[in-house]
Amino acid sequence: MMAVCSFLGHRHIYGHDVQLRLQAAVNHLVEENDSVEFLLYLWKSTEPFYALCLLAALRAKQCAPQKVTLTLVADRLELEQRLADKWTHPLFFIADRLLPLSVSKDRNPLKVLKRTVQWMVKQSTHVINGFYEDLFDRDDFVLNFARNAGVQIINVTAPELEQVILASSEQLPERQRLVFQMRKSGYTQKEIAMHLNLTVSRVQQIEAAVTKNLQKQLDSISSCIPKIPQKLSVCSIFALGDANYKNLCVFSNCIRFLMTRYQIDQFCLEAETVHSGFMFALQQSIPLYHKIPTRAVAWDAGSSELYDLKAEFCPPCDAAESIGGIPAVDCRISTILELMDRSMFCICDLSASAYAQQILAHIPQTRQAVLLDIGKNTALPKSEVLGEWSNSLQLSSIFPEGYILK
């Protein structure tokens, strides 16, 4: 059985165990189906909740590469404009498909976003939902769209936070509390406006105030809940090949991509990479105000020669580490596998590495490492690919004639 899954949720993250619940839902979906295609909207990958969705899908893909397909969905016109400027997104190196859509003749960004998300839901058999409906998020309209479309909804919301929202609603000012209760009872904004002798725009303003107050309550309560202990978020860098202009540009984009979406606590570099152009690119990509420590890692096979790691690698690195023991194969691949075991993300160039097969075989064993292969040129979208989609995905083929944008 084949499943197609998209994600819905708030821009922000509520609760400290969201990532665990997301990963559990994604893993269960993969286990229960012969194949799963995850649809991810490219322009939403910067938002915290969707960044976690992306991470969960990537981990599932690398643990079951034959079962999982990762498809990036993007607005076709905007994508064409960016590609014309030689723009390359790091996700192009880890996704299986890029799907450009023409879903709206109206270039209003909100309408384009709305119709694109609706199209993704319409193609899905499952939706993983992170919306708390009582927060009246302006984007949660698509959850009702999913219900009406008969899509199976998998909730990753926390029941205890839903109870917190209800309890916090009792502390709202009288007018806000009344609007909250009426909306929860099923009244539309128009019906509330008529009942309270208000304009619809005024009801919308009150709802926005309700959302803001409830979010403050959630944030204050979340800050008091003990956080689940997390391992250091490590990004390892190894087997990168030539430090030419193209590779350095892609490498820098990957570093910035990871830092803007995920909290990277440390960069670990294979010793062979430390004195290359990639180290300079790494230093230039880390903002001065956001210092992230770098560590050189080398294999110590018990040589009798005095090997001063700190003198050799610091600077440019902040620290150096020697891994001892008898390597299973050879020193270099043993170092790489050790780095993979401790990392959340790995950046490498498999096309330039003699250890590509060993690296790919080891990824599922790590259970958490996500591999960004900067040598995966086949994933880059070409102009002819966009041209191929231009005739097959017109507005009328996605939404039937007479479809009304609600």
From TrEMBL:
<dbReference type="GO" id="GO:0003700">
    <property type="term" value="F:DNA-binding transcription factor activity"/>
</dbReference>
<dbReference type="InterPro" id="IPR013324">
    <property type="entry name" value="RNA_pol_sigma_r3/r4-like"/>
</dbReference>
<dbReference type="GO" id="GO:0006352">
    <property type="term" value="P:DNA-templated transcription initiation"/>
</dbReference>
<protein>
    <recommendedName>
        <fullName>RNA polymerase sigma-70 region 4 domain-containing protein</fullName>
    </recommendedName>
</protein>
<feature type="domain" description="RNA polymerase sigma-70 region 4">
    <location>
        <begin position="171"/>
        <end position="215"/>
    </location>
</feature>
<dbReference type="Pfam" id="PF04545">
    <property type="entry name" value="Sigma70_r4"/>
</dbReference>
<dbReference type="InterPro" id="IPR007630">
    <property type="entry name" value="RNA_pol_sigma70_r4"/>
</dbReference>
